Amino acid sequence: MDSVLMVSDMVWIQRGVAKEIPDKIKLTQDELKELIEGGGGAGAESTDNESDGEIEVEEEVEMKQVKQEKKVKQEKIEVKEVEMREEEEDDNDFEKKYLKGYDLDEDGEEAHGDNGMRGIAMYTNNKDDPYVTNNVDSDEEEEKDEIIVRKDDNMVAVAKIDKGDFTLECYVYNEADSDWYCHHDYILDAPPLCLEPIQHDPGNEETGKGNLVAVGTMNSEIHIWDLDIMNTVTPFITLGAPAKKTKSKRKKRDGSGQGHSDAVISLAWNRITSHVLASGGADKTVVLWDLDEAKPAQIIGDRGGEVQSIRWHPNESTFLLLGTMKGHVQVVDCRDILGQASAAWKFDGQIEKVLWNHFNPFTAFVTSDDGRLRYLDMRKPGQCIWEGIAHDGPIGGITLSALTRGLLVTVGEDEMMNIWKVSDTSSSIDKVHSEKLTIGELHCAQFNPDVGAVLSVGGTAADLIRVIDLTKYESVVTAFRN
């Protein structure tokens, strides 16, 4: 990874999901020192725990959760104490508050002494001056303005690999102002391979909703970060235990020691059953995680190949679409404890991406490393509705507009972005526009969930990310005018 520069994945967060003013953790001197010296990131605690094989996986997860919650609660307490001190104006404290700096004699008259200006004190900070009662901390106000996330802002989480440095970066995009900037980031301890937004927060007792992102990594763990908390150096939750920590292959009775034994290469959050996250691994298995319990709920056994891509059905909570590096495409009903596929296909080459057509949820798009784009109907296992060569080489990204019916975009390692129009009958597809982008090989693409024609693309060169408004292309506007 020392020579790799790329955006491996990116996901959009819907408007209104992110907290308007994120919580900001103040790092201690020890934590700052640890971070600077390279001991920070999600693996800081893991390194310490490797020498103690007696610490259980769930205990480590709980410790991280408790630590995170304590930091957020402490900061809220500190803010509350400051507010209470500023609002406290008890009459009994009048002299202490307003006559500080004056020396009164027994008659209550000022004793000026030799210095006639003794009562006029000089303060380096207005907050320390008792005579400034309407003090506003300009630094705090300016900082608040810089980190605020407006209701019409989208957040975009980006997984970046930069020659041995691994980060999860959070950008903000505003359609009206065309704003695009990095809001905050997190340091990762392993190469990020895939991302998935999660709007279920097991720590939120009021609404249960949150602004989380799951990161699949090379070391078999899934790190879940809370995007509404800035400056944190540890993930909110860690799912799975790396093999190097496990002294015995014997599975624990409660299942909490189970998980992937190799890299996590695909993720999918169940929007209908919101406490369930699915992950596909290089170990050829699919794991269904219970986010409330932070442990596996079900293991779906060997899929015949590394599970490169998985997607939950948009309307059915139990159906999972997956594609493997051995060319398998399967639809699995997770209620089947044996994990048998209810529909299956086998193609040459490896499957890169699978994607449900949410405008016609009986159908799905499939891309592969030979540049082929295929369209499948779940009611016709083993058959293709249509297929064709879409790129010269692997198709690393495919995305379907959330709002514009039939607007499909594919990107590939040939550095090309191709725009397609899928017919209403789904019997054909037409290329509307093709363009070579200037950010190297393209590995991911995703449409904005709130804007029909805006998408982002991740590459391997230059600025790595491109946000594209397809309404700027006349051919696209013409094709989708009616």
UniProtKB/TrEMBL annotation:
Give the keywords, sorted. Phosphoprotein, Repeat, WD repeat
Secretion signal: which residues?
Answer: none
Please give the GO cellular component terms listed in this UniProt entry: nucleus
Chain spans, region Disordered: 36-57
* Entries under InterPro entries matching the protein: PWP1, WD40/YVTN_repeat-like_dom_sf, WD40_repeat_CS, WD40_repeat_dom_sf, WD40_rpt
Picking any one GO biological process from the record gives:
rRNA processing
SMART domains per record: WD40
Q: Where is the composition biased (Acidic residues)?
A: 47-57
WD repeat spans: 257-299
- Record's protein name: Anaphase-promoting complex subunit 4 WD40 domain-containing protein
Species of the source? Caenorhabditis angaria
